[in-house]
Each structure stands twice: as structure tokens, then as C-alpha cells.
Amino acid sequence: MNEHVTTKGxxxxxxxxxxxxxxxxxxxxxxxxxxxxxxxxxxxxxxxLAACSPFTFGEFDLFPSRDAYSLLNLRVENYFExxxxxxxxxxxxxxxxxxxxxxTRENLDERQMLSLLYVSLRMLEKIVAKTSSIDxxxxxxxxxMKAIAVNGEFPGASAVPDLSVGAVNAINHxxxxxxxxLFSFNVTPEVLSExxxxxxxxxxxxxxxxxxxxSML
Length: 217
What we know:
This protein has 217 residues and is α+β, with helices and mostly antiparallel strands. The chain folds into 2 domains: 5-78, CATH 2.40.50.140; 81-216, de novo design (two linked rop proteins), CATH 1.20.1440. The protein is built from 6 helices and 5 strands; from the N terminus they run βββββαααααα. A 5-stranded mixed β-barrel has the order 1-2-3-5-4. Helix 2 (111-128) packs antiparallel against helix 3.
């Protein structure tokens, strides 16, 4: 007989099912990317209605079946509500969710991608709250490059010609540093332009997908 399991995770996307249910795609710390069915969550008065939305990070109690999981309980640790107050930042956050969805799979160790997604969303949250002066464009460049590196495809700074020493150092930092320390640096406007150019090259080579949030950005 199956018993319930508990895992940390972030909701990447949701869709409505029937009259009262929702289908969640969750990037989890223990099972990779999984499908979770939230039964009756759209009923009036449901305690999980607000929580079953993209960006929500928390601890999920789940009942496993052959191809998916059923939601038993969700203890929210962060809604990332501040992201929804700034349209551009919200679109950037949704883009991060889409990239995580693109790269991750079920039953694989996706803890690095989960950590990258979490710290990147936290940085966007700090930008909205004006507790960080980092440029959102740098957050995007670092996220894209680190996501490619986590997936084992990153070619390094040598793949981009004519970069300055500052840009090479920044790219090397992004590739080599731990996810938790990813945003412990800043760059000049000139280097940021080089990083955007480099990220565009890497994105075209390794993230060849139609991300809806990019058209909004």
C-alpha cells in the first residue's frame, strides 16, 4: 500500500481540471519535476486555493500513484507575492519558471535547478522591495548561464569572441560558483552589455524553445 511522501518544491505552472480541480507541475527536491493533482482546490473556501499558483514554494504532502501525485497538504514558505506587483519582474520570474520546466525531468536529481530557481526568484523579490540594487538584466544573464551549466552544457567564456577580462571573469564566476553565492557580484554597464550578448548566444544554442514570457518581456 502506498504511503504519503513529503517534499519541498516550487509550483512551475497550473491548469484547471473539471469544475473544482487543478493540475500542478511542481519542481521538487526529492522527485524532480512531478505532476500533482489538487482535488477540489477550486471550491469556495478551499484552504489551498491561493497556494496552488505558480511561484509558490513550500512543503508538499503527497500521495503517489502510478503516473502522478495527489495533494494532501501544502505548507507555504513563500508565495513570492511581491513579484506580481511589478509587470516586468513578474514576466522575468515566469520566464525562470519556464526554463526550469524546460530543463527538468521526473525522477532525476533536480536539487541544483530548484536551488537556482529559488535564489533567483528571491533576488527578483529583493529588487522589487528595493533591498538590492542589482540590475534585473544581470539576474537574467546569470540565471540563463547557470541553468545551462547545471544541465551540463555550458561551453564557457571561450565560446564568445572578443570579450573583455571583466566579462570573462563574470562568466567564469557564474559557471563555477555555488548557486547560493551566485548573486554575490556586480558588473559595470559595459560588462553587463557583454554578458547580455553572451547569454543571447548561449540561449540560442541551448535554450531553443518558444518561451511565452520572452515575448512579453
